[in-house]
Amino acid sequence: APVRYDVPQPYSTHAPVAVEIADMDDDGLSDVVVNQRAGIAVLRQNSSGTLDPAEFHASVGTDYDCNVYTLAAGDLSGDGLADVVDKAHADTEYGIEVYTQNASGLLDPPVAYALAHGGANHLRTGDLNGDGLSDIAVMLQSTDHLAAVFHQQPDHSFGPTVQIATPSDDLWSSRALLVDDLDLDCRDDLVIATNGNWDRSKLVLHYQLPSGQLGPPVVTAAGDIPSAVKSADFNGDGLPDLVSFDTASFRITFYMQSADGRFGAFGSVPVDDAQMTSSHVMAVGDINGDGRPDVVAASGINTPG
């Protein structure tokens, strides 16, 4: 049976909409990180296998009633310790915040980096210039740019940003990001799912070149407003494929990679629940032990009446 853990809301009610699992104190146990109204909360696993009460870490933008919408956890600085990055906005100010885990197993106060545009709320990490350091890709809602990449510097700070231009006028905003090695060349690539109904919804792929730069956009048709995108080998041919959760049609669409590296919509399956609302949360993994990847999408629910 599920175990419930309450996460206190220190400033106002803002239900967690992002969650990550990582070892946040270097004790070998997996902990839970969730977003908050004005920061993040860490629920540390104890020796009994349960989670301790939530430990709140304030955002830099607390004084501005800062909203934290999405986060990622992992070793950003290369020291073997899990760090946290979130995307937040305060009034008209937008940016990311990086919480670095120190040698004591605690999180240092966040360091903020400004964004020129706000909008949609999604970020991913990966080495997007081939220098061996983790970078941060962030969605933008802009008519000119779909995403921005904060490149990590040798001193483990981030910036300046490299903005990813919109490849055509009919692609006007992004919905979700994916960072993964799609062409199996040991270099991370970037996938951007764009907004728009049916023929305006696209997946924009930027393959990383041997120079470390992201290559020109490769655009493929997508489902109806894809709000989440993941990768896995769904047909057993050894090549990563893509899957999206399509908000407007409530369908999960699969895109199989061919031998020449192209992605085509293989088919989709309906999510048959009239009460479901939009989803930005989707996970891929083998959840029934048959050795094949499965897809799980989480959604809000409209309560009748």
Automatic annotation (TrEMBL):
Pfam families (alphabetical): FG-GAP_3
Q: What InterPro entries does this protein's entry cite?
A: FG-GAP, Integrin_alpha_N
The UniProt keyword set, sorted, is:
Signal
The name this protein goes by in its record: VCBS repeat-containing protein
Taxonomic classification: unclassified sequences, metagenomes, ecological metagenomes
